Amino acid sequence: MTVRNQLYIDGAFADAADAATMEAVSPRDGAVLAKVAAAGPADVDRAVAAARRVFEAGTWSGVAPRQRKKVLLRFADLIREHAEELAELETLDVGKPIGDSRKVDVPTCAAVIQWYAEAIDKTYDEIAPTGPGTLAQITRAPLGVVAAVVPWNYPLILTAWKIGPALAMGNSVIVKPAEQSSLSALLLAELATRANLPDGVLNVLPGEGPVAGKALGLHPDVDKVAFTGSGEVGRLFLGYSARSNGKQVSTELGGKSAQVVLDSVGDLDAAASAIAWGIFYNTGQTCNAGSRLVVTPGVRDELLAKVTGIARGFRVGDPLLPDTQMGPLVDLGQASRVGGYLDLARSEGAVFLAGGTAPADCYVQPTIIDGLPNSSRVAQEEIFGPVLTVIAAKDEADAIAQANDTRYGLAAAVWTSDLATAHRCAGALRAGVVWVNTFDAGDVMTPFGGFKDSGYGRDRSLHALNAYSALKTTWINLK
User: Fold this and answer.
1) Alpha-carbon span 432 to 158, nearest angstrom
2) E-strand spans in 243-372?
């Protein structure tokens, strides 16, 4: 397997202008996979110039929709052809179980690119009803140069969520992967060029956030930043926009999602399984992970026994082994963060139903914490690890109130066999995605994003095409 370790600018790999590098360290065993070029301001300038040049030339932005569709469909095919290489890169780079990389991440990446390719020549513009004598056309125009800043928890999927609609609309794109997860994005860019995407349309700039990310956020010739990550960094990009050209910034900033289980729950086994997988999948490193279990008294004890049993049975280990269900956290810094929250919970008198030992390396056991109020830091702050906090609720009204008592609003779920209760609770939960009697179900055809401090960006669905285009009105006098 070839590990690509240079910047990808204008259709070619290149070292950073100042020869700066950073280590790609596998959380699997601490091995250094590669020394990856780290982009600086000069590299950002070069990538933006290439992206702007090709955009203005119209070799992508100005071609027929059917031609863009053809290229993106070929791009999706190449992702599938290189599925095993992409899966191994993803697993080695971020510790994701190889089964998940093969069955979920790579296929989803290809499917998203294909879906937006298919949407290109099936999306129509509008004619306003102005009456005789005038013709008012309302069309979508590509924004220009888009910077996609993606996190390390789902590198392939989240990159596809952003570049799919951005490329479909004719934009030029610069991907800034997270420092921990550069490798799969570099292969994606090479495959896009092999699919006949014009040079300069898709560029990839590995680098440090305070250097490369900041330079993109402040660059006067970047028209939009699409960001997924922490609230702290998302606010930095809003500030960069204000300090530069007022560029658009879309944000998806994490969550503290509640699984609300009421006494009227129907299938308690299904609920327990979904709750466990909803927080322990991907080692809890999921923005919409169901990290809070809000449960009413009638089913509390039985449900906790079932969820605890599932947690203790999770197979934690080497992500390259096909039967591993939970691999390591992405790096030692994240392991230290998770361990700090476990120590905090213990100091506040928490009861650990499962797990609870701070990790000495990147591997941590599934953890269930009981006995803390919803106001505790462990219940309120995004831990980004396999840690479930149990919150007691008196009844339905109290459960909904506690579920909403968080600064986040990305996702939530309610478990009930009563149809009226399901509708009532789903309407009352303040979250961008609400599941009923399931968790983390979804499709590229439905939008994903949140309320409150979870940001206002929306990935997926046809709505994302609007996020990477500007409405343009052309008023024609026919008299």
Assistant:
1) 17
2) 248-252, 258-261, 292-295, 351-354, 367-370
Confidence at residue 475, expressed as pLDDT on a 0 to 100 scale: 97
Backbone angles phi, psi at 14, to 5 degrees: -155, 150
Question: What whole-number distance in Å separates Cα of residue 388 and Cα of residue 187?
Answer: 35
Residue 258, SS3 per DSSP = strand
287 catalytic residue (yes or no): yes
CA nearest neighbour of 250 among 161, 183, 118? 161
Close Cβ partners of 403 (under 8 Å, ≥ 6 residues apart): 258, 260, 292, 294, 412, 429
Task: Write down the catalytic residue from 88, 179, 190, 287.
Answer: 287
DSSP-H helix ranges across 142-247: 155-168, 183-194, 214-218, 231-243
Averaged over successive runs of 10 residues, the pLDDT of the chain (479 residues) comes to: 94 98 97 98 98 98 98 98 98 98 98 98 96 96 98 98 98 98 98 98 98 98 98 97 98 97 97 98 98 98 98 97 97 97 97 95 97 97 98 98 98 98 98 98 96 97 97 96
For the chain, give the longest Cα–Cα distance: 79
Active-site option among 88, 252, 382, 396: 252
* Confidence (pLDDT) at 300: 98
Name the residue among 217, 236, 259, 201 with its Cα closest to residue 416: 259
Phi and psi at residue 19, in whole multiples of 5°?
65, 15
| Paired residues of 173 in beta bridges | 146, 202
Reported as half-sphere exposure (CB side, CA atoms, 13 A), residue 296 has a value of 19
Q: Is 56 labeled as catalytic in the residue annotation? A: no
Domains identified in the chain and CATH numbers: 7-253+455-477 (3.40.605.10), 258-443 (3.40.309.10)
Q: For residue 458, what are its two tokens?
A: 């929306």
User: Is residue 75 within a helix (H) or strand (E), and if so which, with residue range?
Assistant: helix 65-81
Pairing of β 224-228 and β 145-149 = parallel
Confidence at residue 1, expressed as pLDDT on a 0 to 100 scale: 77
Compute the distance between CA of residue 451 and CA of residue 247 in angstroms, rounded to an integer.
21
Do residues 163 and 202 touch, judged by C-beta distance below 8 A? yes
List 456's β-bridge partners, or say none.
none
Tell me the whole-structure pTM to 2 decimals: 0.97
287 CB neighbour count, 10 Å cutoff: 26
> Are 166 and 17 spatial neighbours (Cβ–Cβ below 8 Å)?
no
Q: How far apart are CA 265 and CA 87, in angstroms?
A: 37
Distance from C-alpha of 409 to C-alpha of 434, rounded to nearest angstrom: 10
Spell 71-106 as b/e; 16+ CB within 10 A means b: bbbbbbebbeebbebbbbbbbbbbbbbbbbbbebbb
How many Cα atoms sit within 13 Å of 153 on the Cβ side?
16
